[in-house]
Design brief:
The chain contains 7 helices and 2 strands, in the order H-E-H-E-H-H-H-H-H. Among the domains are: about 60 residues, no CATH class; about 35 residues, no CATH class; about 55 residues, no CATH class. By secondary structure, the chain is mainly alpha-helical. Strands 1-2 form a two-stranded antiparallel sheet. Helices cover about 50% and strands about 5% of the residues. InterPro entries: Phage/GTA_portal, Portal_HK97. This is Phage portal protein.
């Protein structure tokens, strides 16, 4: 496609063809005619009309670029080169099938499946040939290339903070912001406890429940005794009304 395009456009983007002469030409006549025709349609005379004599006819031989799908072939070249080097098409300017969503995922795929394998090789070579201490190792940090869009990052940061494995200043550092006072503490949800403390918490809950029930029972008994005492006093102070069986006089 490159060679075809180079020759095609160097010749003025005109298809090649043949001249048909009704008579047989001698070698010298053939050579002179070829030179004359080339002079008429090349250089400064390109795109000039061709005048044919002696019954000659023009016959097109090459296939037109649109018939040969020249543009489609050129587009495929870009995709083919990107495929060879494992590069997403949008990174070499091919945005024909690109969208905002698939560009992000193609970029992540490029880091994971193209860049990362080479980084692992370099890490292993550095650790093997340049570092003698077993406690030190080489590692390329690609977190910045895997950050994703702002919505995904903030959702991940929020989960990391609430789960207690990142504090707020660490998140600010990841976003290239200065630390703030009071944001170094790790946050833990109140409704979550370590697995080892679950049984202890249940025992404490049972103990406090028993104390609460005992206190409530004592309060209820005291109220009952108070009510019974008041009923007895009210009965003693109630006036006795006269009747036929029990006259007062």
């Amino acid at each position: 496609a490159e060679l075809f395009g180079s020759k095609f456009f160097s010749k003025g983007a005109k298809s090649s063809g043949a001249l048909e002469h009704p008579d047989k030409l001698s070698p010298n006549a053939h050579k002179n005619l070829q030179q004359s025709i080339a002079k008429q349609i090349s250089g400064e005379n390109i795109h000039s009309p061709l005048i044919l004599e002696e019954g000659m006819k023009w016959k097109q031989l090459s296939v037109a670029p649109e018939d040969a799908q020249f543009l489609e072939t050129r587009k495929f070249q870009v995709t083919d080169i990107a495929r060879i080097f494992r590069i997403p098409p949008h990174m070499v300017g091919d945005l024909e099938r690109a969208t905002f969503t698939n560009i992000e995922h193609q970029s992540l795929d490029f880091v994971i499946h193209t860049i990362r394998p080479w980084l692992v090789r370099w890490e292993q070579a550095i650790s093997r040939d340049l570092i003698a201490d077993d406690d030190i190792f080489a590692e390329f940090l690609v977190d910045g290339l895997l950050r994703g869009d702002i919505k995904s990052r903030y959702e991940a940061y929020g989960k990391a903070i609430t789960d207690g494995w990142l504090n707020r200043n660490e998140v600010r550092a990841l976003e290239n912001k200065n630390p703030e006072e009071g944001l170094d503490e790790f946050l833990v949800p109140l409704n979550m406890t370590p697995a080892g403390q679950e049984q202890e918490g249940q025992e404490q809950s049972k103990m406090f429940g028993a104390l609460f029930n005992d206190a409530a029972e004592r309060m209820a008994n005291a109220e009952i005794r108070t009510i019974e005492s008041r009923i007895d006093k009210a009965t003693m102070l109630r006036p006795i009304m006269p009747s036929e069986d029990n006259p007062l006089t």
